[in-house]
Write a structure and sequence with these properties.
Blueprint lengths: L30 H25 L3 H25 L4 H26 L6 H25 L11 E3 L3 H8 L1 H7 L6 H18 L4 E3 L13 H17 L1 H14 L1 H30 L3 E2 L2 E2 L6 H6 L6
Antiparallel strand pairs: 1-2, 3-4
Helix pairs in contact: 1-2, 1-3, 2-3, 2-5, 3-4, 3-5, 4-7, 5-7, 6-9, 8-9
Length: 311
Amino acid sequence: MKEPINQPGFGGNNRRPRLRLPQRRFRRIPVRLLVPNFITLLALCAGLTAIRMAFENRYVLALGAVVFAAILDGIDGRLARFLKGTSRFGAELDSLTDFVNFGVAPALILYFWSLHDLKSAGWIAAMVFAICTALRLARFNVMIDDPDRPAWANNFFTGMPAPGGAITVLLPIYAAFLGLPRSHVLTWVTLVYTLLIASLMVSRLPVFSGKRVGQRVPPELVGPLIVVVVLFIALLIAYPWVILTAGTLAYLGALPFGLMSYRRYERRSREAKAEAEAKAQGEAAPQPVLGIVRPAPPADAEREQRPSRLN
């Protein structure tokens, strides 16, 4: 009598064949995809540092960190497009970073600088600004995937962008550093001004984006452009509050021109669409042959109502 083989309890081989799961191999990520994300994370560090400086009442460093974060925010997107390193991950990371840098940080800076004197009213204004920043960024992410958006609309933002809103909403602090006396009136003006900028961020106001500015620079303008950039950085370091105040006022004054430019694009688009429809209708109209106009073929409904011809 033979002993059973491969059955438990009979001294046979009890091992079962092991299933080899396929090992998942992650593809290597090119360095060009990581560089823009590193810059975005550096901007996030600047925004978090601005919040810390606001807690410690070191507002000069807090404002400098916000401005530095705004500069990095303008660099990472252009660098990603230049290196062809755009990705969905980078876009989501950029949005989350913008909310911290340009929503939370400016709101806390304003609150600890002046709005806390108004107690709950000041805190509500700070929260409204942060919430409007989040809504602004969410709407921007949704509008990117809109297939019906015309190509010329990429030259404009819908509402004031988050970095522009952050730099603009801090105008009362710039004015105070320039010598404007701090008072209870200035605190209320800061509250109203904060709500105004928050409403501009979530509004439908078209604002010139400037994304396509500087993508192609003529060779003869490279040298002067570098000189202008270096001069601007030097003036910003030497006279920060003057440059920031003048730049903020100029930015606010340029908002109506963006609206007029958007309306002009809209008018041209409507005219081009109407011309194309008229041209299409003209091609579909019956053409005369030897002075005789052939009638247009009957519609389907009319064709069904007509009796069929008997042969």
